[in-house]
Specification:
heterodimer, A: alpha+beta, Immunoglobulin-like, Cytochrome Bc1 Complex, Chain D, domain 2, 3 domains, five-stranded mixed beta sheet, 12 helices, 10 strands, B: mainly alpha, 65% helix
Chain lengths: 387, 534
Amino acid sequence: MKVTKRLGARLGLGLGLLLAAGPAAASWGMNLTRGVTSLSQSVYDLHMLVLWICVVIGTVVFGLILWSVIHHRKSRGVTAAQFHHSTAVEIAWTVVPMLILIAMAIPATRVLVAMHDTGDADVTIKVTGYQWMWEYEYIDEDIQFFSRLDRESDRVRQLRSGLDPREVENYLLNVDKPLVVPVNQKIRFLLTANDVIHSFWVPDLGWKRDAIPGFINEAWAEIQEPGIYRGQCAELCGRDHAFMPIVVIAKSQEDYEAWIAEQRAEANGVPEVAAEEAPVEEAVAADMDMDDLMQRGEDVYGAQCAACHQADGRGNPPMFPTLAGSDFVVGPAEDVIDIVLNGQGAMPPLGGVLDDADVASVVTYIRNAFGNETGDVVQPADVQAAR
Amino acid sequence: MTAATHDEHHAGPPSSFLDRWLFTTNHKDIGTLYLLFALLMFFVGGAMAMVIRAELFQPGMQLVDPYFFNQMTTMHALVMIFGAVMPAFVGLANWMIPIQIGAPDMALPRMNNWSFWILPFAFAIMLATFLMPGGALAGGWTMYPPLMLQHGMAFPFAIFAIHLLGISSIMGAINVVATILNMRAPGMTLMKMPLFVWTWLITAYLIIAVMPVLAGAITMLLTDQYFGTSFFSAAGGGDPVMYQHIFWFFGHPEVYIMILPAFGIVSAIIPTFARKPLFGYSSMVYAVASIAFLSFIVWAHHMFTVGMPLAGELFFMYATMLIAVPTGVKVFNWIATMWRGAMTFETPMLFAIGFVILFTIGGLSGIMLAIAPADYQYHDTYFVVAHFHYVLVTGAVFSLFAAAYYWLPKWTGHMYDERLGKWHFWLSVITVNVLFFPQHFLGLAGMPRRIPDYAVQFTEFNMISSIGGFAFGLSQLIFVWVVIKCIRGGEKATDQVWEGARGLEWTLSSPPPYHSFTTPPKIESSAGLEGSPR
């Protein structure tokens, strides 16, 4: 490795030069990350090994071409040789590449076998891809939540928003609620999807794996350093494929346990936050007036619905129906509430994400926005009755 | 392009425009039609690439809706693959195979007419999907379900268009096989055929083998959508990954369909301008045949991340790595052909050398991608985009430019403008690297492909890449100007055109008579053929 590295750098050609100049350009990011798991480190080493072998081969091949182009040209008055065959040479340049390939295949096999060993996990997390967000479920902890692009990035990334992405911290790589995991524990990820194929990729973990509807894929990671690691969906999944990032926060064991306890407390106590179980009764019963519902509804719509149905309700038919002027939307409120709670087709069930007041607000909002005018309101109590 | 010079042949082209071009059964005219159509589609697909690079010039969404962006990436690929690269190679096959093997025409001339004339209609349908409710296909050219099933009207129309393209390709391929196997001049044994003919023979078999597989895959999509089947839906007992297996069983040989004829072209050009026989003719033939065989057993390296069993991943990794061996043999043979030759560097040779170097970069990144555990990082990133554009643009497309410059004097009877040709080459070779080389870095640093907007740390390389893209796109206009100029006039080309050229096509006049080799030439020895000592 070291020898080839020095050789490549000295020859200073192509990729070799550019990578040898690494530190100067490091802020631009031009090489694979070493990552923070044992797997990602071995993947990085493998990558560098193969890269340098390729640089050396490339240097030799291009060097020969260059030499030939300089020396074997008619303008130098040479006469062309007429040789056109040599079995020995042909055998040599068949066998030598074979040996180089075998040298690469051995470490590659070792890493691949390690990656496939998903047994003996300490923590198991089920990851489900949706258009366009991720759902995380801690299998043994009874914790579940959705994670989607943060509001700030979402505002800036709208077409011709006129806002500068450079002003947003972690533009497109930030979420409203990150995945939290413990360090130095073997985490097993179970990956699936609800609608189309997605792909879960955090470069620092050393791999990506497809999330496929109806099937469960496995992968694992053991993160060695606490920190925040960012990634995003890597498989084209429709209009907002670029806008479903992944943020993983690795915490020490104590901090992780504290976080788990906090999540449990929130799930049981405060209805505002994502919670599967029905919120506490008192919080729901209070009726809200039209203005409150509309205001809150607009917020909820922006966060949950606008990605597909668009901020102005025109949708993206036929997959994502138009809400503006829709007979269904202004029809019986119960049907609208039912779809929001339970989903239908590509629409994810939002009953677990939104509390009764959120659902009531957003349903009221879509029935009275984009030119729709039912004039009526839906109260949290109606939603609770429909659950 | 008339045959006025050769009055010993009884018939020139029909005088009426419709008779000549719409009803033509002449391999040269059909070849010309294919080539012009491919050039047109190259600019249609290129315009889409310009939209992509313009939106990616800086972070944030400035120009187009993300969904329209997805339509651009999807249609760019479909147009370039099925509209530009494949028809261009078929056009070359039509023009060159008969005159390289001493045949009067293609074996099945009427079917030849039909193969071509399907194309404009298929692409009219394909491009019309932009105007349909919901817009054109936007799920990637690979058309993976379930995403593919979310399209509107474009879905059945695009599938119909792809079926038509498949029919056209299969008919073209059958014609090539029938011509090569039945119509060679006496004495032209298989192992005396020019490499371009050999590579096309093998390519034609690949097309016949895999286009029906694509047809099957997209028909299953159609029945899943409209007739209640569940081939690719887990809810009905199917499997979305099965589609990917079927698609890539077509898709990987398809990649070689777009590169094997390029090998043939380069194997013709390098000996001509090195004034030296092709090194290792028979090993070149065996290498192409090995690559074609291996192309059928490596498909799943496109889907390492779908969650295959370990044994499967190991098999596909090893098999994929093996392809490097015959590919390496070809590159080494080209270098050995150049070695101790007496080279001159006219435009075809420049593009051919550019091909060897830049295709090799694509090949080396291909080895990296073959390493399955590392591919878990590279997969679906800009690293892959860089890889296949090195193989397809600086590979396939550069070989097409090389071929065009090499044979334009033969086709038109005029020398092209060498100065403009060199400008075209040097601008292309510089800008194409500015365009695609930084994409390696983007991919390694973590930028996924098929995204219209990106995190700000990817800004600089995207800007560089976009600038390279615009410049590369503009440079191609020079080529159009060279071709127009060359058709309209220029220095008279000799029959042999290039000092070092060998082979039957150079025994014909420039331009060749409308009907050539009506009496087959007799080939006594391999002297004077490609690869023979001079």
